[in-house]
Each structure stands twice: as structure tokens, then as C-alpha cells.
Predict the structure.
Amino acid sequence: MFAKQHGASTVLVRSAAICGTLLLAGCAGGAGSSSGGATLDPSVYASAAQGLDFDYYRENIEPIFMRPRPGFVGGEAPCVSCHTFQTTTPLKLEPLQQDGERVFWTEEQSRRNFQIVSRLVTPGDPDNSRLLRKPLAVDAGGAREHTGGKYWDSRDDPEWRTMAEWVRNVGPGAAPPMAAEPPDFEFFRSCVQPIFVNPIPNAVACAECHSGGTRGFARPPPEGRNTWTEEESRAAYGALMQLIEPGYPELSRFLHHPLDVRAGGDFMHNGGRRWQSKQDPEWQALAAWIRGELRGSTCPQPLQFTSR
């Protein structure tokens, strides 16, 4: 059940469909609340693309995020099921507000959402915009993976076309989102990759679960070796980059999946919690690497291991 209130980016839904689920824990805000969640670093908002139309976004794009749809996160799961409650995806939307059966974002929240969503598009180029490629079928030009499923079979889908129109019709001063340099490969090979085979108490080694598939970033060295070849390290680095937002540790799933949920970590991680807080020295060192502050083969003390 979906109804749009023009100019307010509001939907009316059955509570059980959205806010009545555990997955949408972000629907905790009461009527009139303006935020309900931690505000991101201002640099995240400043990195947004320029020249996109906010009014068109609020009227036509934002309601798409609330529409029920099939996916891997429960039945008929809307985008907000992951992209509000999950704190670590690049599409980090504000927590929804609820007033009876009315579920909505305030204008202030919508403006923050607009900045976040604008980071994921290339003005004038919908075909190469991350926002439009993630849920699009691979054979139609979509991204290889999307945890929430593929619900646009082609670029003729009405939702895809609506988003494409927004991205194409940019105003004066249009500019793409600011891109950060990828984290340093040499530092990854010397200081980050050894983490994957060095477990801590109460958590299994990353290599136990993350050594296969397209996201197999933690393959251990082959039997008889305790190090990786450059080719093996580059393959692991490429896989890990799917879980990293260069320059922004707060939007990088790699740093939040094994983080304690009470410290802002992902809701589920089968391998245990490697870090109890963001103050953990290892977490801090990895965050500095993602921000581009650590480079080369000299490892800080938290990333020095006696065995590999």
C-alpha cells in the first residue's frame, strides 16, 4: 500500500510492512523529530555531486526508497530496510519518522538524504551512476552485486527511467561527486592483509568465511607459504574495495561488519566482533588507511603481527 503526498515526500504504509519490522530499527523517531541518528562528517555531504534538482528528488526519487519490493532482506523489503538501519552503506539515509500510520522524512532530513544520494550519481550520465546500476539487472548494464536484489530488469523500468530523468536534467554548475584516492595498495599488502589470518579471542579469522566467491578478500596463502604473491594480494585488494568507500571509513562496511553493534557495527556478523569500539587501535589504524593517511610498507603497532 503506497500513497504519495505531493511536496512532502510522505508515504502511508501498513506498520507491519515497514516500521513494524526489526530490520527497520531506524523508524524509532517520533512525530516532529528532525534527525534521530548520528550526523555524518560534513566532508561526506560536501562530496556530493552538484547541479541536481532537490524538488524533483523529493517529489519523485525519495518515495522510491520506501516502496515494498522483493529482495534478500525479508519479503517485500523496501530500500530503507537496509539503507536507514544499516549504518555503513554509501547510501546512508536518515532514520524514518512515524506518526501513526504516516511514515516520512522531514524536509531537513530529505536535504541530508539528497546530499548522500547525490554522491552516487554522475550528473548527465545515468548509465554510469552507482545509484542506477546497483538494483539494475547485470545483463542490462547493472552492477555485479546488490545485497538487496535486482528489481529493475531493464532500463525501461519506470523507476529507472524516473531516476535517469533526474540525473540527465542537471542545471548550471553541474559537477560529479568528489572522488577520493583509493587506499594505498602497498599498505594493504604489508599491514592490512595479515589481519585476515590473525584471529583474536572470541572471533574467527576472516579467512574462515571470506576466502571464496567474488568478495573473497581474505584468502589465506596457499599451503606451504606464509605470504601472498603480488598477484594474490592485488586480487584480495580488489575484492576488499567492494566493501570500502575511499576516504570515508564511516561508510565502509569493512570497518563496521566486525564492529560491535553497540558501537555502530552492522546488525549481523557471523564471525564475531573483532572490535568493541571505534577507539580500538586496530580500527583506528584501518580508518586512517581508508582516509589516505597511511601509506607504504611500514606498519603501525596495532597492525604488526608476529605470525602470518
